[in-house]
Write a structure and sequence with these properties.
Blueprint: H1 2-14, E1 40-49, E2 52-62, E3 67-78, E4 85-86, E5 89-99, E6 108-117, E7 131-142, E8 146-157, E9 164-178, E10 181-192, E11 199-210, E12 213-222, E13 227-237
Antiparallel strand pairs: 1-2, 1-13, 2-3, 3-4, 3-5, 5-6, 6-7, 7-8, 8-9, 9-10, 10-11, 11-12, 12-13
Length: 238
């Protein structure tokens, strides 16, 4: 994994192009987006897969130009079974260590942290996890037409008999096609101490922006379980 991270950093440094500027201030789907002081972001999601519908709501708040805090929760409806209920409540934040202006590589870097707790056992992942602690690092670089980013996040589940941990690594590429349209792709590789929870996801999203609102459509595919998801999201920046 270290070799892959070094390779990604080399790509970030080598790729040419203009530095990102103030035009990114409202691009809330950018993987390196950070809220400004006292700004609030609402993200409403709807996802469907295998006759299961999941609706979610997230709210984030910019404490200052480096620290964002937020929370989200989802509700799931299983049309073929009884796996209905609320997901765990996810409370967390992101702290910007570098905005790219204070290092020669011009890399942006954030520390991520949070806690997921509660929720229905039908919706938790894994089902026995009453609480999950996580911390990670997100880094990358922005240009006027493209953003390259990668996130490494470690998750810890403390349980008397079935404690577990897993690491997610997600590289992303995000294109600004014109002032109002975006296109993004990502890949998530999950390695767990219990191999039954290993996963590999690939996804894509299309974004249309109107002022401070973004409408997003996305598709995702998981290779181990062969799950295919489609969904929509609305981001509103206040």
């Amino acid at each position: 994994m270290r070799k892959l991270l070094i390779a990604l950093m080399g790509i970030f440094v080598a790729v040419g192009g203009a530095r990102a500027d103030g035009a990114l201030a409202r691009d809330t789907s950018d993987p390196l987006y950070m809220l400004g002081i006292e700004e609030t972001l609402s993200q409403t999601t709807l996802t469907f897969w295998d006759n299961v519908l999941r609706a979610g709501q997230a709210v984030s708040y910019g404490m200052n130009d480096r620290l964002t805090i937020g929370a989200n929760v989802h509700y799931q409806i299983d049309f073929d079974g009884d796996e209905d209920g609320f997901s765990a409540i996810d409370v967390g934040g992101a702290y910007r260590m570098s905005d790219g202006s204070d290092n020669s590589a011009q890399l942006i870097s954030d520390v991520l942290f949070g806690l997921k707790f509660g929720g229905s056992s039908h919706v938790r992942t894994p089902y026995f996890a009453d609480s999950t602690y996580y911390a990670g690092l997100r880094f990358g670089r922005q240009w006027s037409g493209v953003t390259l980013a990668a996130t490494v996040k470690s998750n810890w589940i403390f349980d008397d008999t079935r404690g577990m941990s897993y690491i997610d690594m997600t590289p992303e590429v995000y294109f600004r096609l014109d002032p109002d349209m975006r296109l993004g792709f990502d890949f998530t590789w999950r390695k767990a101490t219990n191999p039954d929870y290993d996963q590999e996801w690939i996804g894509g999203k299309f974004v249309r922006q109107y002022g401070r609102t973004q409408y997003i459509g996305h598709v995702d595919y998981e290779f181990e379980s062969e799950d295919f998801q489609v969904g929509a999201q609305i981001n509103i920046l206040f």
